[in-house]
Amino acid sequence: MFDVEKVRSGFPALQEAYNGRQAIFFDNPGGTQVHESVVAAMVDYLTRRNSNTHGLFETSARTDAVIEAAHRAAADLLGCDADEVVFGNNMTSLTFHVSRSLARELGPGDEVLVTRLDHDANVMPWVLAAQDRGARVRWADVDVESGTLDMEDVRRQITTSTKIVAVGYASNATGTINDVGTIIGWAGEVGALTFVDAVQYAPHGLIDVKELGCDFLACSSYKFFGPHSGQLYGKREHLARLEAYRVRPVGDRPPDKWETGTQNHEGMAGMTAAIDYLAGLGVEYGGAGPAESRREKLKAAWPVIGAYEGMLTERLVSGLQSVPGVRIYGLTERADLERRVATVSLLKEGTTPEQLARALAEENIFAWNGSFYAQSVSERVGVEESGGWLRLGLVHYNTVDEIERCMRVLDGA
Ligand SMILES: Cc1ncc(COP(=O)(O)O)c(C=O)c1O
After folding, report:
1. Best of 27, 97, 118, 220 for a ligand 1 pocket test (most atoms within 8 Å of beta carbon)
2. Ligand 1 neighbours (beta carbon < 6 A)
3. Can you give the pTM of this predicted structure?
4. Which helix (H) or strand (E) holds 155?
5. Residue 198: predicted pLDDT
6. pLDDT tens digits for range 26-45
7. Structural domains of the chain in order of their starting residue, each with its CATH number
8. How many angstroms separate the alpha carbon of residue 92 from the centre of ligand 1?
9. Which of 78, 97, 368, 380 is least crowded, fewest Cβ atoms below 10 Å from its Cβ?
10. Are 251 and 290 in contact (CB under 8 A)?
11. Residue closest to 96 by CA, chosen among 118, 129, 119
12. What radius of gyration, in Å, describes the C-alpha atoms of the chain?
């Protein structure tokens, strides 16, 4: 059985006192807390391995090893090969980076498709790329009631002129998990490339880029229990073929040609530890053997995490439904909860999202108010002008007791 108290004991931030007492972290979609092994790996890097790359001396060799290990770990997380992983500051800068190269293949008459449910980091790089090249931007709509992508509209908007389809795996606003597999299939029918923003899916489920068949996929390790660092998967053929904006000495080989400048080496070490931590859950609770590969351990971990989070989602949604005046923006029917992560945006009649977040903060419950850069959907739903939503975002270290405490505060707010 998944032992949440044991899991929590491995996260130093959860033991820490804030304003004299422990906090409830429901701000996870903005960034998760890190496992103690992540802290240790970063301290170890900075203490024993700190250097730049490709030198003939010991710390440099150790740094090269850390970088190689990080590529292998991210590849295990995503289901690809190590040379198909590119590191960068965060998802947004990686997406802008690769979009510049993809833009070179666009021209008048071409189309790119973005969605109104996406975070702006998977919208503006493509809008600007299209603008630069005189291509057309199409927008796939959201179903306002359910907070889900309007799949008929997505289908309609993919045409024989579509060159790039950018879609999110899970929404950071409504929590919806999109049927990206189907969309990738439709894009494939017209020869369009697909870019998947997996930032909000990565902390909740197994990613398999080969099974999805996407061309690119990006995530950020600070959302999955690691440090601030971004990861990009690109199909080998694209990373090799596309012209990267780079300095000459890095050469023309992927992934190096995409990794501009000195990377966040301690961040890479921390990310590897975060992935190892997740893999460890597969051994401890998912029945994977200690000798199995990290990918197999991860495959065993995610269903355990998913089952626990599914229970939390159900409790969170039903708890919110019992608070008078609360409206949830996203899927709420029991049968639909599998199609969402434990990220719930809401409004409460008679209060603003800011007032709710303040009331929670006074009780040391950390939660975000606003529209979280998911600007297109907040505009489409009509909450952008009025301060967005209150967002409660849970991960596998949260508990039912925390949900109940949060509901009591919301009830009184
Ligand atoms: C869905 C989604 N995409 C992209 C981003 C941007 O990620 P980063 O901060 O790594 O640029 C976020 C950040 O909140 C997000 O939630």
Report:
1. 220
2. 29, 90-92, 119, 121-122, 168, 172, 197, 199-200, 220, 230
3. 0.98
4. helix 151-157
5. 98
6. 999 999 999 999 999 999 99
7. 4-35+294-412 (3.90.1150.10), 41-274 (3.40.640.10)
8. 7
9. 380
10. no
11. 129
12. 21
Instruction: Give the mean pLDDT of the chain.
Output: 97
Tell which residue, 266, 271, 239, 267, has the closest CA to residue 253: 239
Structure tokens at 50: 């700190």
Provide, rounded to the nearest whole percent, the portion of the chain with pLDDT above 90. Answer: 99
Comparing CA positions, the residue from 132, 93, 402, 87 lying closest to residue 267 is: 87
Which residue, chain included where needed, has tokens 């306002």? 144
Which tokens hold the place of 24?
Answer: 């409830």
Q: Residue 206 in 3-state DSSP?
A: coil
Task: Extract the tokens encoding 152.
Answer: 């008929």
* Residue 111 identity: E
Residue 350 in contact with residue 359, Cβ under 8 Å? no
Tokens encoding 335? 């049968």
Q: Output b/e per residue, 373-394; b: 16+ Cβ within 10 A.
A: bbbbbbebbebbeebbbbbbbb
Tokens of 303: 């269903």
The reported pLDDT for the residue numbered 303 is 98
